Amino acid sequence: MQPQRPDNESLSVSLPRGLTRLGLSAKLLVLTVLFVMLAEVLIYLPSVANFRRNWLNDRLAAAQVAVLVLEGAPEDGLPEGSENRLLTGVGARAIAARVGGARRLLSLDSMPPAAVSRTVDLRSMGWFGAIGEALETLILPAQMPIRVIGGAVGGADFVEIVIDEAPLRRAMLKFSVNLLLISLIISGLTAVAVYVALNWMIVGPIRQLAANVMEFEIDPENPHRIIEPTQRADEIGEAQRALARMQMTLAGELRTKKHLAELGLAVSKINHDLRNMLAAAQLMSDRLTETRDTKIKRFAPRLIATLGRAIDFCQATLAYGRAAEATPVLREVALRQLVAEQAELLGLAEAAQVSFSNEVPAELVAPCDPDQMARVLLNLMRNSVQALAQAGAEPGGRPLLAVHAARDNGSVVLRVTDNGPGVPERARANLFQAFRGSVTPGGTGLGLAIAAELVRLHGGTIALEPSEIGAVFKVTLPAPRMAAA
Does the reported pTM lie above 0.85? Predict the structure, then answer.
């Protein structure tokens, strides 16, 4: 049963947490349209400026034709009405040109130079100036005509015309409307094309990833909820494969933890009853001390001590199921005697199948909890005995278990060695993890996990040392801390 989160801390991936409720596809469509429209705006400014320049150049070109007519006109001038027709055809109120140093003028009326609002010289106008004047024409239309000056052909030095700005503004507005309609059509088609492509390539697969994550959240232990990655070679394919690996690992971990929880409950129940049976056996064993048989009287204290240690172990196992191992009570312990007791419990003294060598110096003492250190030694030595009994020793040798100990810079280093088959490569990665680091076939790995935890409680370390023959487990117990003065 999963723990409940407080309401103010709960998060739901199915609810939008942004500033808008638009989905990813809708956001993509809106952003595509906005970016295309922004690009069209950037294109519009030089386009409308170029349209204005071309419109004025067309009027100047028509005015140049009129100048050519003036150059070929007789000295007494053009026929009556011809000047008005020329000006009307050009769309100008006045045309002026300088030909051979003489200024020629065609005008509908006598208009002073100051009667124009501004002068536009196309001969020296740059792009930024053209854009600025185009915007000025659209936003602030002049009430008075404008003078436009441009280059000329033939014998004329330049041509200038005076025109009303209203026709120019109407033409620019019409061009802007047409460009806007074209831009909207292009934006729509582009947005739809980009939306379809990105939705197929990116948004759709991301939606599938999100949907799979939400389904996996509901039942993470169900293997059918694991995503099936595609063969895509891009980042989305990598994300799918990474998600599949993560989900498989998480599902396996959850199943393992669930099994461990169920197993822990069962072990706790069994251990509770076993503790009661061992306590009864200890009470009955107390009577063995009253017997007259010397052999029984000699083994009775050891039997009682072993039963007492078993009862303590059951109690500690129950405590471990509730919390953790008890804090070790350190005292100076003779390690050789402790090793000898564990060897006797394993039957090494009487067994001829596995030889045992206790190479711990008799004078060596170590600061440790004797009961917990006995469990560490018992687990390590039992693993070696089981490995030697099942697989035997290396070719040409007799099965041998040896325990060494020595001081190293104040610390005490113990080594439990054997000449068996060694630790399999598959078990090395999770060697000290329960149910994952078993060394012997069919084992659970609890012995090494318990030993590692007890050594860590002592502030020490445990490790598998590399060796050419057999297995070597190294246990390091730190030197005791000096009391403060």
Answer: no
DSSP state of 3: P
Q: Which CA distances in Å does 382 have to 272, 345, 448?
A: 24, 10, 10
In the predicted structure, residue 352 carries a pLDDT above the cut 80: no
Beta bridge partners of 239: none
Whole-number pLDDT of residue 288: 66
pLDDT, position 132: 86
Dist. CA 111–CA 10, nearest whole Å: 81
User: For 414-434, how does the pLDDT look when each residue is reduced to its tens digit (9 = 90+)?
Assistant: 999 998 888 887 777 778 776
CA atoms within 13 A on the CB side of 472: 12
What does the block give as tokens for 227? 């995503």
H or E element, residue 472: strand 472-477
Distance of alpha carbon 424 from alpha carbon 419, whole angstroms = 14
Whole-number Cα distances in Å, 156 to 66, 84, 166, 420: 11, 21, 28, 113
Largest CA-CA distance found in the chain, in angstroms, rounded: 165
Query: Comparing C-alpha atoms, which of 451, 463, 453 is closest to residue 415?
Result: 463
Return the C-alpha torsion angle 453, 457, 459, 460, nearest 10.
Answer: -30
> Which of 24, 22, 21, 40 minimizes the C-alpha distance to 188?
40
Helix (H) or strand (E) holding 414: strand 411-418
pLDDT at 353: 78
How many other β-carbons are positioned within 10 Å of the β-carbon of residue 224? Answer: 7
Q: Are the beta carbons of 338 and 364 closer than 8 angstroms?
A: no
Task: Count CA within 13 A, CB hemisphere, residue 432.
Answer: 16
If you compute the radius of gyration of the chain from its CA atoms, what whole number of angstroms results? 49
Q: How far apart are CA 333 and CA 52, in angstroms?
A: 103
